[in-house]
């Protein structure tokens, strides 16, 4: 049986994690966490608002352009959350 996901439960653990990330200079989500974020209703709605706003200024609004815009917005959003979760 696989062990469950690792989680932090105390402030010293959180501080130790932050120190490690600052020392390494990088941070990435694991696939499971990223999946939870990408499918969170609040994040989905925010991304859709961003896509609608962006598409209003485009001359071409084909489905592929809209999908590419959505993909770019999701990527940027998850990247910024990974770097600054507040």
Automatic annotation (TrEMBL):
This is Uncharacterized protein. It comes from marine metagenome.
